[in-house]
């Protein structure tokens, strides 16, 4: 018999961190985990749209989704209740941040200069990447207080910060490769 997907352990409004600590589901750790999960889902959708258009960066998006699992592991292991074994298992290095910077630089070199504020647009791939960027910014806003409180690794916040930049550049790149127009902000008449 296959195991059940439901456990009923969260029915009373509490859930467990990786360290086994029970916290209310409204705790900021679970808020950050939820935002990170939404981000991975949004990137998955952007990846599907991008795959349909044959974009070569889809493998990078898959790698990002895998890194977001590691981000979640770090968030789910509050340092205040983590043993050394937990910390080692869920540590988050600066290496993924540096990789994102390399990707950003590579795509930026191929793009026309930014001369106006770009609205989320540029075709389905681009718009989905812009949406992912907005979700990423929210995830970052949820994680920063955890880092400031010493509950999560600072590299997690750095990764999310750089990831939003990567998603922005990638959205522009997708629009360019697909020959789609990026809509720019035009100030409405008063």
From TrEMBL:
UniProt region (Disordered), positions on chain: 1-22
Gene Ontology biological process: cobalamin metabolic process
The keyword rRNA-binding is assigned to this record: no
InterPro entries in the cross-refs: CblAdoTrfase-like (IPR016030), CblAdoTrfase-like_sf (IPR036451), PduO-typ (IPR029499)
Catalytic activity: cob(I)alamin-[corrinoid adenosyltransferase] + ATP = apo-[corrinoid adenosyltransferase] + adenosylcob(III)alamin + triphosphate
Compositionally biased region (Polar residues): 9-19
Domain named Cobalamin adenosyltransferase-like: residues: 5-174
Protein keywords: ATP-binding, Nucleotide-binding, Transferase
Segments forming a coiled coil: none
One Gene Ontology molecular-function label: corrinoid adenosyltransferase activity
SUPFAM superfamilies, alphabetized: Cobalamin adenosyltransferase-like
Pfam family, one: Cob_adeno_trans
Gene3D superfamilies assigned to the protein according to its UniProt record, in alphabetical order: Cobalamin adenosyltransferase-like
Transmembrane spans: none
Entry's family note: Belongs to the Cob(I)alamin adenosyltransferase family.
Subunit composition and interactions: Homotrimer.
NCBIfam families for this protein: PduO_Nterm
Function: Converts cob(I)alamin to adenosylcobalamin (adenosylcob(III)alamin), a coenzyme for methylmalonyl-CoA mutase, therefore participates in the final step of the vitamin B12 conversion. Generates adenosylcobalamin (AdoCbl) and directly delivers the cofactor to MUT in a transfer that is stimulated by ATP-binding to MMAB and gated by MMAA.
Protein name as catalogued: Corrinoid adenosyltransferase MMAB
Naturally occurring in which organism (per UniProt): Loxia leucoptera (White-winged crossbill)
Name of the coding gene: Mmab
